[in-house]
Amino acid sequence: MKVWSKFLICICLLFMFHLPVEAHNNAIPKQVVNIKRAANIKDLVSSSTFIAYGWFDTSHQKQPLDKSVQDGQLVNFVQSFHVDKYLKGAGGKIINVLSTGIEPLPAPLNPINKVYPGPMAEGRYVCFLKPVSGTEFYTIVGGWQGVYPVYEGKTISLEEEGLPELNQLTLRQFEAKIKSY
What we know:
The chain is about 20% helix and about 35% strand. By secondary structure, the chain is of the alpha+beta class.
């Protein structure tokens, strides 16, 4: 009799802790992620809930949208961003990042990538992130303006997209720069 009661208690505890997890909205939204550029660094920092250094998984989930552009079908992508360090805010070790892209993927220099960047490539980045309302996902603030690859310990401001004052900074310098706003 004791064994059955312990077993029943374990099953009840399992369901009690399992059910709230399934209550989260983890379906990939079917709306296009709109990108609004920040006017300046102060705007970029204040629009971000998190600013984090880490890396993206190359694997991703995707959800085709009911919209096409001349270059292909719009698709929402979700990638895991593994956080090594938070420069603003605090959260978990993994952030699910939502972005809208095109399939088939356009050539890297195609201007449509500025509007629909799609999933991030392998590598280390500093990302400016904000939540997507009504979901558990986050999106990059300002599109490419909110992404700074880190190469040989220094950030790279993407040409014509990133903010020049965030170029060629170590993580310590980058953190000091954003905390001054």
